[in-house]
Amino acid sequence: MKGEEEKGYVVVLTGEGKGKTTAALGMALRAVGHDLKVSMLQFIKGSMRYGELSAVKRLEPDLQIKPLGHGFVHVNPEKPDPKDIETARQAWEVCKEHILSNRYAMVILDEINDAVAYGLLPVDEVVDVLTKRPERLTVVLTGRGVHPRILAMADLVTEMIELKHPYREGKKARKGIEY
């Protein structure tokens, strides 16, 4: 009904293909275009200068991106490094605050699926916070290896499938395309 706030969604962008973060940024851009506030919190990405970090400066304070990781990690899910667990826990504290703050229309948890799959965050905590989020809040979760419990509670799920990628031909990541 008109005048009522719309219910937010849990959106999952997953799969082995490229484009999960890019799709989330597209959603963020659309939301900002409708005068909504968006926070993107990045679990794995750290100090490397990604193009989106420079571009978003033009859209602050309506859109903010916070890299909370220390760079790409290669984790054994059976025995994750305590340093990686601590970094993920600290990032998760920031995420919980943003999700529960009621300051945003959308919160993007970039690469959180990876953090859960790597054993850095307990899925129970993530599901609990998603369940307690403000009703109008849309939360977007990106990354490979989405947990079945998150998949089950999601309202919208998109799986990116790699059909072809220049990496397979030995080509390096390009500025403005991959980062």
What key attributes describe this structure?
six-stranded parallel β-sheet, alpha/beta, single chain, 6 strands, 179 residues, Rossmann fold
What does this protein structure show overall?
This protein has a single domain (12-169), classed as P-loop containing nucleotide triphosphate hydrolases (Rossmann fold, 3-Layer(aba) Sandwich), CATH 3.40.50. The protein has 6 helices and 6 strands. The protein has helices at residues 20-33, 51-56, 82-100, 112-117, 123-132, 148-153, and strands at 10-15, 38-42, 63-67, 106-110, 138-142, 156-160. A 6-stranded parallel beta sheet has the order 3-2-4-5-1-6, sandwiched between helices. Strand 2 (38-42), helix 2 (51-56) and strand 3 form a beta-alpha-beta unit. The radius of gyration is 16 Å and the shape is globular.
Can you give the helix content as a percent range?
25-40%
Judging by the overall fold, what is the CATH architecture?
3-Layer(aba) Sandwich
> What fraction strand?
15-25%
CATH topology: Rossmann fold
Q: Trace the largest sheet across and list its strands.
A: 3-2-4-5-1-6
Count of separate structural domains: 1
Under CATH at level 1, the class stands as Alpha Beta
Structural class: alpha/beta
Average pLDDT for all residues: 90
Quaternary form: single chain
Largest sheet: 6 strands, parallel
From the alpha carbons, calculate the radius of gyration and give it in angstroms.
Answer: 16 Å
Q: Identify low-pLDDT runs.
A: none
Cα separation of the termini: 41 Å
